[in-house]
Amino acid sequence: MAKMSTQELLGVFEEMTVLELKEFLDAFESHFDVTAAAPVAMAAAPAAGAEEEEEAAQTEFDVVLTAIGPAKIAVIKEVRALTKLGLRESKALVDAFPNAILEKVDADTADAARKQLEGAGASAEVR
Fold it and tell me: Which of 34, 63, 74, 96 lies 20 to 30 Å from 85 when distance is taken between CA atoms?
């Protein structure tokens, strides 16, 4: 079996959509029993009935694109600005709505991103 060089692998990944890359990452993590996520301090499980307190103390939010609206190009530009992704990846992310544009951000960042997306004509929610 011939091995691919790093450059060849990058070429393959470059041609993939964001969704294909996500599926690949999930399969890679599963196959090798690893995670690409940054280490996070583990918190103790909340006691029964503590769900309401946890929701009130939520510190990380996701910004979810729920509709594109009439100005798709403007929405792609906003997604690109918010995520720092390339044009192709931003377009793929917009085309695959509804989905998270930003994940695990603070409340102010999430609210500002939602307003930016709505300013471009899209519909977005902070979850």
Answer: 34
